[in-house]
Amino acid sequence: MNSNRHPAIQYGDTVIAYVNPESMKPVEVAAGQTFQNRFGTFHHDDMIGLRFVHLLEPTPELWTLVLPHRTQILYQPDISLISSFLELQPGVNVIEAGTGSGSFSHSIARSIAPNGKLFTFEFHEERAAKAKLEFAQHGLSDIIVSQHRDVCKNGFGIFNSVTAIFLDLPSPWEALENAKAAFDPQRVGRICCFSPCIEQVQRTCETLKALGFYDIRMFECLVRPYEVQRIESEKLPLAGPTPKGSHKAFKRQSAGADAVASSPSSVLTSKPKESVRGHTSFLTFAVLLPTPPSDGAAPHPTAASADAAQ
Amino acid sequence: MLDDTIRAGEWVMLKLPSGNSKIFVLKADERVELGKFGSFDSNNLIGRHQLVPYEVVGDGNIRPVENLDYLQEFDLGDTEEDASNMTIVDDPTSQRLTHQEIEELKSQSLEGKVDHSAVIQKIVQNNAAFEKKTDFAKAKYIQRKQRKFAKIFTPIKPTTRLFCDFYLAKKPEKTREMRIDTLSQIMTFANVRAGSRFLVVDDASGLIVGAMLERMHEHGKIFALHDKETPNFDLVRMLNFSDEVMSVVSSLPWFHLHELPPFVAPSHPDALDRAQARRNQLERTRDDILAGAFDGLVVASRFDPKEILIKLEPLLAPSKPLVVYSPTKESLLEAYNHVRLSRRFVNTQLTESWLREYQVPVFNSGTHPTMMTSGSGGYLFTATTVVDDGVRIEKAGAAPPGTGGQTMGMAKKRKVAGSGSAKDEAANSGADSTDAGACTADSDVAQTVADAANVGNSTME
C-alpha cells in the first residue's frame, strides 16, 4: 500500500480478491499457495487472468473493508472527516492511540507520506505485534512507528513535536494531558477523540476545556448507501382486468435487466438500502492554540496561549 | 502549508464576531478595515499565528484575546426552559442606557478610546434583567453583545475545508454545494496521495484541485479538463501554494481534447516565442492526458457525468478509483448505471453524505444536535477499474443477450463454476439477480474443495 508499487502483481504483494462490494478478501500472493472462494480454488501462481474474481490493488479504503478485525474499526466516512479536520497531508507528524486493527493507520500513512511520521500506540501486546507485522508487509515501516504501550498510564514519550493526535480509547480523557504535552507549541495542534457513547464525549469535552483546548466541536458522520434499479412504470388497466399473477411483474429488476431496459416506460430509480450502519462513533474535535512567538513580535504577550487554563 | 504563521502577500481570512468573514491578500504597511469592529495595522498581524483570536486595542494595535470562553460557538436557539426564566419578560426598558448613550460608547470604542470589553460590561451592568437570567441565558446575552461590539477577529489561513464551510453558507453554487464530509470522502475514495497522477474535472472553482494539492504538495501530477480557454480555479490561488506545488497542475480545455486547432504564428517575433511556448505546453499537456494510465479520476462537473465517463474512462489504469460527485442524485443515475453495466468497473457504490453536528457540553448548556444544520452533503458514486476482458457494454440498459450486466453475467457463470447439484441450481434460480442468494451454493463449493486455501481468515462470508 506504499507508493513504491509495481505495475503488475508479484509474489509477496497483498491483493484484494473482489467478488462484489459485500464480498472481498485480502490475499498475500505466495508461490504454491491457493485461494478459495465460492467459485472454487485458485492457485496464486496463476492469479492473472481470472474470470470470476478481480484482484485489486489494495488502497487504505479497500483494506478497511477486508482487514482481519481484531477490534471495532473505523470506517471510511469517519476516516475521511477526521483526516480533513486533522489536516493530514505530506510531512505531518501524527499520534494515534490505539492502533486497534490498523484500519485508520493505513489511511493516515497514505495521507502523510512520503515525509510524515505516524506514531501509533496499542496497549494490547498481541494486537500491537500483529499490526506492526502488517505495516511491514504493506511497506509502511518507514512511515509508521508502532509501539506497545498504555498511553493513559505511561504517556506517549513524545513531547513538543506533533500537530495532530487521534485518540480511539475507552477513556480518552485520561490521555489528554499527555496528548497536550506532545503537541508542537509553535503550531496549531489538532485533536480528535473517537467515542461511541455520549457519556464518553461529555467527559472528554469537559477535560478538553479544562486543559485549555479551544473550538471544541462534535460530529456524527455517516453515509446513506443507495440501490439503483430500473423499474417498469405500469400503465392503467383501462381495457380489462390484468392477467393473473401479473402483480409480480412489478417486482424490482436489476438495473441491467434487458426486458425492462428496452421498455420505453421504464424508469431509473434509487432508494436507500434497507439496513445500514446507523452509528459508528461521535467525533470530538478540538484545537490547541500555539504559544505566541517569543521574538517579541507580540506587543501584548498574554495568557491566550495554550496555558490559559492551567 | 505546514505552517501557522501569517505572512505578508498571502491570502488570509478574518473571521469577525458577527459571523461574517473577510478574505483578502494581506499586505504590509496597510490599515485593515473591519467595519464596525474597528481597524488595525497589518504589520501588527504579520508574523503572528493563525486561528488565535485577536482584539483590536488602542489605535490599530492588536493582542491575543485572554478569555476565549465567550467566543466559542454555541447554539442560540431557545433550548433552555429553566424555571427561573419564568420571571423574565420581554421588556425594552430593562436596558437603562439610552440608544444615544450606546451609540456614543460604540464610537468611542471604534476610535480606540475605550476598550470594547468595557462597553459590553457597561451594557450588561445596565441591563436590569441580567441578574435574573440563568447562567446559560447570561452567556447567550453576552455572546449576542460580543457579536455586536467586540473588536475581535480570528485570522485563518485558507484551506479547502474553510472554503467548504464558507461558500456553502454564502455562495453554494461556487463550490457546487460541496460539504466538507463529502470533499474529504472524495479525497479518500480517490486514494489521493503524494506521487499520484490524477485526471480531474473540477467545475467547483478549483475546490477539488485545491484539496488534492493539499494532500499531494509537490509530489505527483494533476490534469484538469475545463470548458473555457482558461480554467476557473479561483480557490486554488487563494490557498497560498508555492510555485513548485502549483506546477503539479496542468489543464486542457475540453474542446482541445479531440484535436488541437492549427497553430497560427503571430507576425511579431517576440509574440512568436511566447505563442510557440504556449503551444508546446498545450501539446505536451494533451499528449500526457491521452497517454492515460491515470491513478484515478475525480469528477465534480456541470456537464453530464455519463458523457464525461465515456470519454475519460479509457484513460484510467486498472484497479484505480473513479469518484463522481453531484449535489443531485438524479443527475448521477444514468452514469452510475453505465458504470455498473461496464466490464471495466467493479465495486460501484452510490452514497449520500450525512453529517450531524452537536452542541457540546462545555457551557452548562446540554448536549444535543444543533438546531439548524445542512440538509444534505450531496451524492458520490464510486467504482474501481479492472482489466477489461473484451466484453464491453456500450449503452446503459441495452445489454445484448448473453453479455448481461456485471451481476447477471456472474450469476450465469456461477452455475458453471458450481458443483451443478440440484441444490445449487435451486439456489441460483432463487437468487434473482442479486449476489446475496449465493450463500448456499457457496458452502456447497467449499465442501467439494479438498485442499482448503491457506489464506486470511476462514471463509468468504
Automatic annotation (TrEMBL), chain A:
GO MF term list: guanidinoacetate N-methyltransferase activity
Every tRNA (adenine(58)-N(1))-methyltransferase catalytic subunit TRM61 C-terminal domain range: 52-287
Known catalytic reactions: adenosine(58) in tRNA + S-adenosyl-L-methionine = N(1)-methyladenosine(58) in tRNA + S-adenosyl-L-homocysteine + H(+)
InterPro entries for the chain: SAM-dependent_MTases_sf, TRM61_C, tRNA_MeTrfase_Gcd14
Keyword terms, alphabetized: Methyltransferase, Nucleus, S-adenosyl-L-methionine, Transferase, tRNA processing
Entry EC no(s): 2.1.1.220
Location within or outside the cell: Nucleus
Spans annotated as Disordered: 237-277
Enzyme class: transferase
PROSITE patterns: SAM_TRM61
UniProt KW Nucleotide-binding keyword: no
Any one GO BP annotation for this protein: methylation
Function of the molecule: Catalytic subunit of tRNA (adenine-N(1)-)-methyltransferase, which catalyzes the formation of N(1)-methyladenine at position 58 (m1A58) in initiator methionyl-tRNA.
Family, as annotated: Belongs to the class I-like SAM-binding methyltransferase superfamily. TRM61 family.
Protein name per its UniProtKB record: tRNA (adenine(58)-N(1))-methyltransferase catalytic subunit TRM61
Organism (species): Polyrhizophydium stewartii
From TrEMBL, chain B:
Protein name in the entry: tRNA (adenine(58)-N(1))-methyltransferase non-catalytic subunit TRM6
Location in the cell: Nucleus
Name of the gene encoding the protein in the UniProt record: TRM6
Family: Belongs to the TRM6/GCD10 family.
Region of interest (Disordered), residue spans: 396-438
Domain of life: Eukaryota
Keywords carried by this UniProt record: Nucleus, tRNA processing
InterPro entries recorded: SAM-dependent_MTases_sf, TRM6
Pfam families listed in its UniProt record: Gcd10p
